[in-house]
Design goal:
It contains 15 helices and 33 strands. By secondary structure, it is of the alpha/beta class. The chain starts with a strand and ends in an 18-residue tail after the last helix.
Length: about 675
Amino acid sequence: MRAIGFSRTISGFAILPAPMLHHQIELLSPARTADIGIEAVNHGADAVYIGGPSFGARTSADNSVQDIARLARHAHRFGSRIYVTVNTILRDDELEPARKLIRQLYDAGVDALIIQDMGLLELDLPPIQLHASTQTDIRSVEKAVFLQDAGLSKLVLARELTLPQIRAIHDALDPQRCLVEFFIHGALCVAYSGQCYVSHAQTGRSANRGDCSQACRLPYEVKDTQGRIVAHDKHVLSMKDNNQSDNLRALIDAGARSFKIEGRYKDLGYVKNITAHYRQLFDQILEERPELASASSGRTTFTFTPDPDQNFNREFTDYFVNGRQEDIGAFDTPKNPGRPIGFVTQVGPNWVELQCDDEATTVHNGDGLCYLDLHRELVGLQINRAEAAGAAGRWRVFPKDAIEGLRHLKRGTVINRNRDMDWVRTLEKRSADRRIGVWVRLSRSDAGLRLDLTDEDGHAAHAELTCEVEVARDANQARARLHDALGRLGETIFSPIDVSIEADQAWFVPASLLNALRREAVAQLELVRAKAFTRLPRGQAVEPPVKFPEDTLTYLANVFNHKARDFYAKHGVQVIASAYESHEETGEVSLMITKHCVRYSLSLCPKQAKGVTGVQGTVRAEPLTITHGDHKLTLRFDCKPCEMHVVGKLKPAVANAATSPLTFYRQRPTEAV
């Protein structure tokens, strides 16, 4: 057989749809870096969100435009999308740099921006789709509909919403224009996102500008109005971590279509594991419900069994999705308590002997163990060396630190493991394989052989080999070899669904020629997919501009530049105060608004006492104070909406720091305005 050359013809049909459709379910994973984002895609993410070089609400999770372009190219091979966070509030002098960056991101192939600052909508932006960040604090139907009508195509709802509230927002939106996104996993901010100013008031580090000091994770002393200590050194503002694994079907029924994993600070192992966990759960749902579909292409297989408990977590809660729960706080510690594996049997001069609850448990060098001391504080114990100690499940571990420093460690102490080195090593290796199914068909052509590939999305391509075709001597053996060679797609993103050979007689084709034909057809199919991939459409704002639900905005609206002021004025707002970061609010104000209630969590809520004999009427929602060092804050309780306000004021050093003076509409403008 003599090969003369390839005929390169591209054909295709059923191109990928431009918008995300309402029946599609999107798993949205975080990425601290482009490499982590690539692994998120490999582990089944339908979309990845990542920070650019600046203006993202995670100051130490920045990435170059070049790296984001590399991530986008990889994601788009599977039809996955890349969203970049530009979700800080901006000063006037930052608007033009932000506009230029957005142009660069669009040119790099980014599919959408996640934004907070409405001033961006007043800039000359490329036609890139815009999503409303959770920092925009979307809790009401009215605000959701307004943002849709202002041109936002996806809304990241407040994490505090219940299923009926999510459903009400979904039902009010036009699914052809705007979709609902909801957080399903990861760390929880105790405040409504965008409504926390504690960090800025105390340190000058603004959460709305991506630099939160995480005052909510600190221990506080809680006192009542009479100065009595209610709780001592408790992390009363620290929430457990979000986990909606059991609520995915209900969230879909409520109208959520994009499901977001928190974690742009998280490491590679976390993103791999949590993405894989939810990929498997959503794949099960998609199998059950054929009316739904994945928002990207391919199927993912894993070399490990996903387990959310293996990653850092503060234990889990489903928060308010199913209504208010008592046990949502991580009050003892904001650290990772891990999972119990056994208890201490002996403490030696430089070792600790453990009995594991499960005799099959293996303890490894480098494992991280921990326990709660007598003050309910978490004490860490990193293993330098671990040795089996004879009896089944018995281990002798030699800690990295001196035994004397391990407070209250004694016989009977329950031991947790919060770092399993065997698990860590598993996720350091290649741990997933994502493939798009294809039908493979080999046939004769006028010049020789033709190989057709059609993928599961309906894209088709072929390659032809100009050659002389010889009939094989051993038909069965030749057909088996052809079938095997055509199905070898291991180094590609494709896997064979079916391989067919259309021939009356079996052919003899040298392996080198067949491999070249297969590689050419695969390359052509990748080109077809790349050409068929389309950008998400930019949402169109309603004209004339719709009215904002309110005509007055306080500092809580986070208006930090004149373009944002112009945006709200255009939409009918008459009184516009500047953002808290402008330092115009120097007195006591609400520095945090939260659905979490310390009184409720400490069983001091008047509603809890209702109907309890001897208690009803004696418990009132009086303020509490919380103190950490020289930081003192007041907790006030608004029982009608069932919310808590953390009240305080700017520290003098922060108040005196240089700011950008802003003069907005602090009173109703005159007719001339």
